[in-house]
Amino acid sequence: MIDNVIHAAFVMTTPILLAALGGLVNRIAGLVNIGLDSMMLAGALLGLIVASQTGSWPAALIAAAFVGGFLGLLMSLTVTRLEANEIIVGLGFNIAVAGLVRFFLKSWYGTSGTLSLPEVAMLPRIHIPVVADIPVLGAILSGHDPLTWAAWLLVPVTAWFLARTRLGLRLRAAGAAPQAARALGLNPLNLRDASTVFAGMMAGLAGAYLCIGVVGIFNEGITAGRGFLALAAFYFGRNRPWATALGALLFGLFDAVQIRLQGRGLPAELVQTLPYVMVIVILTLVAITVKRARNKGA
Amino acid sequence: MALAATMVLASVLGTASARAEDKPVALIVSQGGLGDQSYNDLGHAGFQRALKETGLAGKPVESKEVVSQATEILRRASDADFGLIVDLEYAHGEPMLEVARDYPDTKYVILNQVREGANIASVLFQEQEGSYLAGTLAALVTTDTSIKGINDKPVIGVIGGTKSAGIDKFIAGYIQGARASNPDIVVKVAYSNNFGDPAVGLQMAKAMIEEGADIIYHVAGGTGMGVIQAAREAGVYAIGVDTDQDGIAPGNVLTSMVKYTDVAVETVMKDYAADKFPGGQTLSLGLRENGVGLSEMKYTRDLIPAATLEKVEAAKQDILSGKVKVWNVVDQGYPDFMK
Question: For this UniProt entry, which segments traverse the membrane (chain A) (predicted)?
């Protein structure tokens, strides 16, 4: 039972974590990406189509990352070069991509809403011998797909990248002080574009995960607002990769718990609010702790 | 004054040119359009059958902006001298009220909801009756270990899209049917809170399968696709809803609780042709009218013992004869077993 909850929690976390890490880097470089959901949706659709056509999951992931990155570039150029409002452009992308996806499904596949294709290459699951049989630890470490591993490995990598590499520091400069960055001879707009392309690629992978890592079919509602949960996760984490990952994990964990708490005598409506209520509770606790620590220091 | 005179003139001309019942029929196709192999195609099939049998003229109306342009589409169809407008689009309920008032001589049909108006006929389906049969079948199959993928635990599940009377109508019927054929049955109920998220549907179905459920009914639209997928992966069974979903995962969809939209469209069109249009009334199509029922079970019929199928048929006869009354959450509120 507990093993199943843990495993489901990781499955529900991966797409949010991937998109949140992308959004985090994007925000650090100075752009709040409201359009993550649209890039996720496009990545989900293309990932499924390529996985079915080629029978290769790496090809599907590359295609999903590509389409997500391409949408990210378009969005970024609209914001950095045409000076459009990032919130409006992000919302516009969400609406436009949802419409295009529906149109594409209808005109190419003659279906509405759901796309089910034959011979979809799903992500393989990595079973670690011995460890898999240990309770709890087995559920945490074994039976996951490569994308889940990649998402978690990217957490320390992102932290290191932002703190220790030249490019990471330049991205931070582009976001925090674009004028200063320009004075140093950097081009903050180019840096910002690059970060949005990265965010788009990560969101595309998150979408592909839903289609070829979880269900094996596409539905126009498959992202179910997870792009916005990712947004909440990196706001929750205040741009720190580990805290952001914790935020994503909380969403995943409470979703997995919520699913299993239903039908145990508690009203369904109340149980379904659990993930969101818990996030508010934890945010409050974090804020109180930070404030106390600050007061003590002063 | 001049306006009133024109209206009198117009109505005189109207009656002189043709009786309303000879005027052609329009079928407004909903989102998804014709060719969806589902709701719209089913409605269109009934439309074509009725045209052929009654000799009426008519044509389907398709539009890309069927929802955003609701009022315009309805008005255009009304201006085009159709006598009867059958509307498959759910979102047209509200705009129809306004348009129908302006065209008192045109008749309108709306499905799956009740709209007031002397020239509007509403059609409801008795989904709880079909769901009762789905529950009966599920409860009989879930302890029959001779069937592939079935364990000996009397546990089945149902996943609804949202917690509301419209969805619980299906669920209550399902539970009632299951309990009638096995009083010890455990029916796990969960709600996805979303009609378009197959990932969460799959996770919910998996959680139920872990707890011994081997048949899961979904009343959750696109989320239900994940339920069917979970059943396929685990080698157990899902039950489809609204249209015949047996072919989505052949052999892993035990049956589907089908709403026969074609029967609904055909029924009202024939009434219209016979000058008996049920304006201002609500038609309620259940098992008796063939408005709801289980699918033909093309892929699973051979898996199920004949005795089981006979019991399901007997349950159907009990409902038809009035011996069994299936609970309707929308009309009667919640039954004790769901409180």
Answer: 6-24, 31-51, 57-75, 87-105, 196-215, 242-261, 273-290
